[in-house]
C-alpha cells in the first residue's frame, strides 16, 4: 500500500457502528466504560500520561494513586497477598506460567479452558494435560479429575505438573466449577493453582484466599469496565518472590512485567471505574436473578440453555433448534438472525450463528433484557410459517 | 485497605495536573494524541470494542480496517515484510528474543540500550554481552564493536549470539548510531539484528530494509500519537515463520502474541493518528532544525549538550553546571528547577534533577521552544546573585 493521501483516508477517526446497540456479546457486557472511565480516557489519553510523576516503577506512582490502587485496593478486592496490573488476563496467566514452569514441564488445564490459556502454556513451553468435563448438557467439571490428571502427569513424566489452572467461569457455558475443592485437590499434590477469573473478577464476588487459589487473573476490559488491554494478577505470599522477582540488571524492575505494563490510560480507566465495580459486585445476586429470568424466558420459547442449571452467571450458552430450522429455509440463510437482531438494535450474537450461541445478560437490567427476549419471540413469530 | 465509601473516594475520575503544560518529557512529546485519536478513544473506549466484528484474529478484522492497517499500511511504513501490533515496543522485543533465542543463548546489546531491552532479554533467559560506547561527551557506538562482541560470545560459548539489538536512537542522548553498518557487521556473522526504534518510528523516517534490520520495534504511546500501551513490530520474511508461528492448539492464533494483543481503543488511536503520523515524519528535517536551534540557545547560556553534535534527534541530554551550583545554595535545593519550571507551566524535567537532564523538542514548534529557552534564561537570571 502506497501511503498517499488517498490510501491514508482509510484510517484516521472511524465510527463504531455498534455504539448505542444493546450489546449482549459476553466480551462486551462487563467492559462498558463508566462515565468516570470515559472522562479518565480523555484526561489520560496521551501516550505515557501516567509517567508524568513516575520515579521509575509504574505501580509505585503515588500521584495519580496507582500505588494505593495496586498495593492496597487490589489485594483487598482480589483477597490475595500481592497484586499487579498487567496487559490483560492472558498476560497475567503467561507471567505465572513462565515463572512457575520451565520449558518441558506440565500444566493441568480444565477441559473448558479459554484458548489463551492453551496459547500461554504453549508460549511458556509447557506440556498440557486437560481435565475432561462431562460433555453436553451440563459440561460438569469433576474436581477429582484434577487428581487423576496430576497422577497421570507424575506417572508419565516422573514429576508432578508445575501448575494447574481452572477457568472460573468458563467462557462458553458460564459454568462455575467448585474451585475451592479443586484447589484443595491440587494442594494435596503440592501443585499450585491459577484461577482464571477473566469473567469473574469485576462481575461477581471472588476471593483468592477463600478458594485457596495461589494465583488469580482478571481482565480489566472484559469485566472491570476498563479500556483495554489491561488485566490484574493476584499472587500469594508464597509465590510472590518467584512471579514478582526483580531484574538483576535493573533492581527496581520486575522481570515478568518487562518493567512496566499498563503504562497509560488503561490503568486510569481501571481506577476510574473501580468504585462502581466494587459496588456492582455487591449487586451480583440481582445479576444472577436476571440471568435466570432471561434463561427461563428463552426456554419457554423452546430454546435450551446448556451448562449449569439453575445458572449462576450472566454468560450463557443456548441451543436454538428452531432458529436453525429457519436458517435452512430463509433466503438470508444463517445470517437471518444477525440481521433480524440488528434491525432491532441488538448486537452480540456472532453473525452466521443460529443453532448454538452464547450471550451475556450482565449489567443490562431487566428492561433491556425484556427487549432482547421480546425480540427473540418476535423473530420466532415472524418466521412461524416457515 | 477496607473498600468502603471513604477509601473508594480515592479512586474514580482523577484530574491530570500536567494537562495544558508545555511537556518536554521525551516520554510524552511523541505520544500526545491527535484530535482524531481523542475522538477514537471515546468512540472505541469500551473494553473489547474492536472485537464487535472479529472472526477470531485481531489483525484480520476488516471493519474497523485493522487488517488493512496491520497488513498493508504498517509494512509499508516500517518498510518490512510482515508487521503486527503488540502491547508496546518492549513486548515486541520480548516476542523476538523469546522466539529467536533459547534460554542460555546470548544476545548482543548496544551499551546505550534501554533498560527494557535488558529486562526482556533476562525474561527470555538470554545472556547479555554489551557493545561499549565511547563515553562522555559523545557516547559514540562503533559498529565494529558488534564484531568484537559477537566474536567474544562465540569464543566463550561455542556459538554466535542468537540475536543482536541496536537502540535507534538511544533514550538518554538521542544518538543515532550507524545502524546500517551494524546490520552489515552482524550479518557477516549470520546474526540477525533487532532495531529498537521506540524513539524513531512515528517521529522520523526509518526503513527496516534500507538499514538491513531483520526486526524493527516501535512504540505507539512513545512516538506514534497513540494511547498506550501499544507497539508495532516489523519482521523480515526470513524470520516471520518463527516469530509469527501459529499455535498447535488453535490454528489461527499466533503464539508470541498470546492470540491477540492491542484488543481495544489502543489500536484505534494508533489508526486514528496514523495519517498525521505519516505526514509528520515527512517533516522530520524541521524537527531536527528545531532541536539544533534549541541546543544552540541552551549552549549560549552555558549548558552543554552531550551526545552527537550536531544533533540529529529531538531527544537531547544536557549538562547544567550552573543549575547544579544554584541547587546547592537555594532553599528548595535540587527541587528549585522543577518548581521554577512548573511556575512557568513547563513540565518534563524530572523533579530533583539539575546537573544532568534530558528533554525532547518534538512537535512543540519554534514558538513553544522559545518559551522554554526563555524560561531557562529567566531562571538563570533569577538566581544570578547566588
From TrEMBL, chains A, B:
Membrane spanning stretches: none
Cofactor(s) listed: pyridoxal 5'-phosphate
Record-listed E.C. numbers: 2.5.1.73
Gene Ontology annotations of biological process type: translation
InterPro entries for the chain: PyrdxlP-dep_Trfase, PyrdxlP-dep_Trfase_major, PyrdxlP-dep_Trfase_small, Sep_Cys-tRNA_synth_arc, SepSecS/SepCysS
Coiled-coil portions: none
Single GO term (MF): Sep-tRNA:Cys-tRNA synthase activity
Binding site for pyridoxal 5'-phosphate: 89-90, 196, 219-221
Reaction(s) catalysed by this chain's protein: O-phospho-L-seryl-tRNA(Cys) + hydrogen sulfide + H(+) = L-cysteinyl-tRNA(Cys) + phosphate
Entry annotated with the keyword Ribonucleoprotein: no
Aminoacyl-tRNA synthetase is among the record's keywords: yes
Keywords on record: Aminoacyl-tRNA synthetase, Ligase, Protein biosynthesis, Pyridoxal phosphate, Transferase
Sites of N6-(pyridoxal phosphate)lysine modification: 222
Pfam families (UniProt xref): SepSecS
Xref: SUPFAM superfamilies: PLP-dependent transferases
Oligomeric and partner information: Homodimer. Interacts with SepRS.
NCBIfam families: PRK09331.1 (NF006810), SepCysS (TIGR02539)
Similarity comment text for this entry: Belongs to the SepCysS family.
HAMAP family cross-referenced by the UniProt entry: Sep_Cys_tRNA_synth
Primary role: Converts O-phospho-L-seryl-tRNA(Cys) (Sep-tRNA(Cys)) to L-cysteinyl-tRNA(Cys) (Cys-tRNA(Cys)).
Name of protein: O-phospho-L-seryl-tRNA:Cys-tRNA synthase
Organism encoding this protein: Methanosarcina barkeri CM1
